[in-house]
Amino acid sequence: MHGRGTDLHLDPAFGRDAKLFGFFAHEGSHVVDDLKLISNGYNKKGNITHLESEQRAYSLENRVLETEVMRTNPDWQSKKAIQKFLLTKPDLYPTLGNPILEPKAIPEMKKR
Ligand SMILES: [Zn+2]
User: What is the pLDDT of residues 62-104, one digit of tens each?
Assistant: First the structure.
């Protein structure tokens, strides 16, 4: 999801289980972001940028690594580091500045 595909991006030294747990945490973080946007009707405040969503996802993935293998990825230590990391992969993350949904695609919900 979100341009990441099936590439786990991790150093093999992190180990297979840690990679998998990190992968699920990462993708789960995107699911949480998407749910915040669409649950209870569309909440425009939840329409964060892909950059923000990736920063949350990589930050969580890094915390999983820290817990599982007591190592972290230096590229994912802070929002700034994650942004720098993402900018080195424009092919994977071409639309970082865009919101998750085009604002036009968000239906106006009637207030009850
Ligand atoms: Zn992601």
Answer: 999 999 888 899 999 999 999 999 999 999 999 999 999 988 8
Tell me the per-residue pLDDT of 34-43, one tens digit each, with 9 for 90 and over: 999 988 788 8
Q: What are 49's strand-pairing partners?
A: 99
Q: Give me ligand 1 centre to Cα 112, in Å.
A: 35
Give 86 Cα–ligand 1 centroid separation in angstroms.
Answer: 10
Q: How far is the CA of 23 from the centre of ligand 1 (A)?
A: 9
- Please tell me what DSSP assigns to residue 108: P
* Structural domain contains residue 7: no
In a domain, 52, yes or no: yes
Please report whether residue 37 resides in a domain: yes
Total domains present in the chain? 1
CA distance 64 to 18: 7
Domain that holds residue 30: 12-91
The reply to whether 109 falls in a domain is no
Q: How far is the CA of 110 from the centre of ligand 1 (A)?
A: 32
Beta bridge partners of residue 99, listed in sequence order: 49
Ion ligand 1: protein residues whose beta carbon lies under 5 Å? 2, 4, 54, 57
